[in-house]
Design a protein that fits this description.
The structure is a single chain. The protein has about 120 residues and is mainly alpha-helical. The protein has 7 helices and 3 strands; from the N terminus they run ααααβααββα. A 3-stranded antiparallel sheet has the order 1-3-2. Helix 4 crosses helix 7 and helix 5 packs across helix 6. The longest helix has 22 residues.
Length: about 120
Amino acid sequence: MRERKREATALATARTPSLDLVFDILADQRRRYALYYLYGSSDGVATVDEIADHVVSLEEYGDSVDDHRSHVVTSLQHMHLPKLEDAGVLEYDSRSETVRYWNQPSLEEWLEHAQHKELS
């Protein structure tokens, strides 16, 4: 587990993150959708609600929209945003529910490719 924690912080400290870390970040569809939104925003700043709205617009779901959106918000707050923050990709302020994306060229190369394949 200690090795995993070290790997999670590698993106924040290394110039070129390992492919393992980049692919771990991009392995989850909901995380990718959140990153697509943040990467595409002009200043890289968004609220959790804005990100959740974007994710819900891309996901297929059987629940009511409100139930699904609530689930998306919870998973962003408790799983995906903290993981991305630990990796050094973004800063997440849980009190104000705002997110600031930090440019990561080595991640963005793969993110752009994934977005093209997934959403085109």
